[in-house]
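Module 6 notes. Inverse folding takes a fixed backbone as the condition and produces residue identities as the prediction. Think of it as a translation problem where the source language is geometry and the target language is the twenty amino acids. Below is one complete input and output pair. Work through it position by position during the lab.
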């Protein structure tokens, strides 16, 4: 039985304690215990599982990032500009021929959305069936063009005209 000296642990060990050399004949300089791991050996080692964020955690992180941005001066200015643009579009989309009863009905939609939000704890929004700033067509801010929607569904819809189902 042949023996070989390990240059790392400084011990005389049996040849079976050494790996064969990949680049030529003979055995490696380090024994199996102290030998340098090859790429193949590294691949076969069990790696600790990566901690993946759940979809809910990603959503929460994104919401927090948006909230932090809105709290900056630039974020507040952008939000104020968007709200002002929306109010202007809504004003120009509200026809002058609406009666006071119809204007009251519009206000009732917003009051009902607020009440349902408080009651059920889920944000309910007033949606325009035909969007005020749609690509194909622009709707009016009238009671028969309004509907109540959960915020997430309304955001998914965006400014698109979806068929009535």
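Target side of the pair, the amino acids:
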């Amino acid at each position: 039985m042949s023996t070989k000296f390990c240059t790392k642990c400084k011990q005389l060990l049996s040849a079976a304690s050494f790996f064969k050399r990949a680049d030529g004949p003979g055995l490696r300089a380090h024994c199996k215990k102290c030998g340098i791991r090859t790429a193949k050996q590294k691949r076969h080692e069990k790696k600790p599982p990566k901690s993946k964020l759940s979809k809910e955690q990603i959503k929460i992180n994104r919401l927090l990032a948006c909230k932090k941005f809105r709290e900056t001066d630039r974020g507040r200015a952008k939000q104020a500009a968007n709200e002002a643009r929306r109010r202007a579009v809504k004003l120009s989309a509200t026809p002058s021929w609406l009666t006071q009863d119809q204007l009251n009905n519009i206000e009732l939609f917003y009051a009902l959305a607020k009440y349902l939000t408080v009651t059920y704890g889920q944000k309910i929004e007033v949606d325009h069936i035909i969007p005020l700033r749609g690509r194909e067509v622009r709707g009016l801010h009238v009671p028969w063009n309004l509907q109540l929607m959960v915020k997430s569904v309304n955001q998914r819809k965006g400014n698109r005209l979806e068929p009535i189902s």
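Reference fact for the lab report: The first strand starts at residue 3 and ends at 5.
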